[in-house]
Amino acid sequence: MSKKKDDLQKDTIDNTKKAPLTTNQGLPVSEDEFSLKNGERGPTLMEDFHFREKMTHFDHERIPERVVHARGFGVHGEFEVYDSLEKYTKAKFLTEPGKKTPVFVRFSTVAGSRGSMDIPRDVRGFATKFYTDEGNYDLVANNMPVFFMQDAIKFPDFVHAVKPEPHNEMPQAASAHNTFWDWVSVNTESAHMVMWLMSDRALPRSFSMMEGFGVHTFRLVNAEGKSHFVKFHWKPKDGMHQVMWDEAQMINGKNIDFNRQTLWENIEKGNPAVFELGIQVIDEEDEFNMDFDILDPTKLWPEEDVPVQIVGKMTLNQNVDNFFAETEQVAFHPGSVVPGIDFTNDPLLQGRLFSYTDTQLIRLGGPNFHQLPINRPICPFTNNQRDGYNQMSIHKGQTAHHKNYMNDNQPEPLSTEEGGYEHYHEKVEGRKIQARSDSFKDHFSQAKLFLNSLSKPERQHLYDALSFELGKCDVEIRKLAISELLNKIDRDMTEYVAGRVGVEAPPEVEESTYEKSSPALSMMNTNYSLDTRTVGVIVMPDVAEETLTEAKSKLEDKGLQPTFISDNIYQIGSMTLDATFDTVHSVLFDSMIVISGRQPLPAPAIENLEIAYKHKKAIGFGTDSASIFDSLSFSEDAKGVTDIEKDFDGYLDDVKHHRIWDR
User: Fold this and answer.
1) Residues whose CB falls within 8 Å of the CB of residue 518, separated by 6 or more in sequence, listed in order
2) What gap in Å lies between CA 142 and CA 352, rounded to an integer?
3) Of 68, 233, 337, 365, which one has the fewest beta carbons inside 10 Å?
4) In the chain, what percentage of residues exceed pLDDT 90?
5) What pLDDT does residue 267 have?
6) What are the b/e assignments for 353-377, b being 16+ CB within 10 Å?
7) Is 15 an annotated catalytic residue?
8) Number of helices (H) and strands (E), helices first, in the chain?
9) What pLDDT was estimated at residue 4?
10) From the candidates 142, 187, 487, 608, which is the catalytic residue?
11) Which domains does the chain have, with CATH numbers?
12) Which pLDDT value is given to residue 16?
């Protein structure tokens, strides 16, 4: 006999009513903003039972799916350093040029579940496992260099806010709802990250066309024990490129696996994804010389002030054999380091060092997840750890303790000279305290820096993204976000968004007067290449076979990937067309070409060309195609519309530059 709803009231916790915040044991909590530290800028302490309880519960909320980064795509490859970095670090994979280090990379979205779409407006995970001779090193990065909070104790709250709302489990993989905007509006340290999330960086065209950032400030330590502060960067060979928001919504309807499929197919074709590793380095004695705290994870180091040194290359060239065994079971941890790489007191990083192990314990069924093939180091590993769920090794011997006489103290710790890991000897002193350093209290300067750095189209896209997101929220949340967040960053942005979402702009306040810009933050300042670019070629039945084979050859010779499309799949001579308008669309291609012959264009072809033009893509035409413009809203003289027989190089240049932004 099932319980009636009324019978469940005694088991119901009503969070809508006023009540004190307590631990799960009922202990009233006096502080939920800051973890317990040794001094305001010191490391997080293990005795912070409230932080540990909160994070442990959060880490175990999803079984077996990851709480965040659930939808991922993995690929194998290799890394090679260009020149020895021994002046900065003793890590062997960074000091031995020519040595190839195997890697496994997992790209992911953050907020959506495993069944969500590839292109929501979201952060992208970019986690790299280096299988080095000294053990596994995990660089657990994102495609954005900052994050939403300064202290890990807030991470569960943020994810609860951005996930589908708990009362109705909506919306999926989206930040355009009340609880997200409520949280970021009253936790204004998120201001900088909100600008990134609302920008084109949140809509990557391909996993191979986005940057990666380690987010945190780490340490590199050399053989002499000297430390440097470092930030890690991945720079894509294919450049940074995006899809437009309207285009993303259509792609998600046409091909939910768009980013995953693109990378999979390119690797199968022999087109690897290539990234260069860059580092920004600050000498330890210069720790306090910036106009912000370098340990603050909501701040970036402007590349014009601290140049990125390109130090190595990663080539991703092998797809997985089994998604579950590799992509799903891979376990990353920012605490997986090798000699020569160490941590700082960034309070978000400090919390992650606890959280990741705890997460893997529940997700992968116990403490032996490191023995799964995808997680296993390539170097030997020996210790006195035994048994546990899913133990896959057979341990010989009578002793399983250290120190021991019976087995000559084996396995034996190594000295640092022999390669044993040693933590950097940082001096730490201070009172145990739950607080944040005053140097972390500027929340808006770098949000304005980011805005200042965008091109005109990028800024307009950001304004429109804010309008879309807040337009999905209740009026009171719109007002809150505009007054507490946007109005403290930029007045022009505030007035634009307020006008779009139908609320009165709040009174002017002292917005950020930060005038600096960083050209490196604009996606317009990037590499441009034809490699892996796709072209949808619309074909009519009366086009000659010779015309098609010539077009195919010319495009492929330049590295482009053509798909020949018509109403039906049929043969023209010996050539069989690839797809129909039922299965593909212009939103799935970087460019469109129409080779129409003398027959009028069918309606689907017109729709595809009009939308490609709207999305500012290069459009080519040829062979008796001039008459097509009688059916289109744009002319053959429009920007980015090219007769490929007369100016093929001009067409290629338009494709290479991704969009015709001044169309």
Assistant:
1) 302, 303, 304, 449, 450, 453
2) 14
3) 365
4) 82
5) 98
6) bbbbebbbbbbbeebbbbebebbeb
7) no
8) 14, 20
9) 46
10) 142
11) 68-185+204-347 (2.40.180.10), 444-521 (1.20.1370.20), 534-656 (3.40.50.880)
12) 82
Q: Which residue in 637, 632, 638, 631 sits closest to 660, CA to CA?
A: 638
Q: Is the pLDDT of residue 1 over 50?
A: no
Summarised one tens digit per residue, pLDDT across range 339-378 is 999 999 999 999 999 999 999 999 999 999 999 999 999 9
Catalytic residue among 69, 192, 333, 615: 69
Buried b (16+ CB within 10 A) or exposed e, 517-556: bbebbbbbebeebbbbbbbbbbbbeebeeebbeebbeebe
Do the Cβ atoms of 513 and 451 come closer than 8 Å?
no
Residue 600 to residues 298, 563, 623, Cα–Cα distance (Å): 55, 21, 13
Q: Is the CA virtual torsion 425, 431, 435, 440 positive or negative?
A: negative
Distance between CA atoms of residues 191 and 159, nearest Å: 16
Q: Which residues of 477-505 are buried (b: 16+ CB within 10 A; e: fewer)?
A: bbbbbbbbbbbbbbeebbbbbbeebebeb
pLDDT at residue 9 in the model: 54
**Does the annotation mark 142 as catalytic?**
yes
Q: How confident is the model over 385-444, as pLDDT tens digits?
A: 889 888 888 888 999 888 889 999 888 888 889 999 999 999 998 999 999 999 999 999
Identity at 593, one-letter amino acid code? I
Which token pair is 398? 């009578």
In angstroms, how far is the first alpha carbon of the chain from the final one? 68
SS3 label, residue 140: strand
Annotated binding site: 66, 106, 155, 352, 356, 363
Binding residues for heme: 66, 106, 155, 352, 356, 363
Taking CA atoms, 407 is separated from 172, 394, 399, 434, in Å, by 56, 17, 7, 46
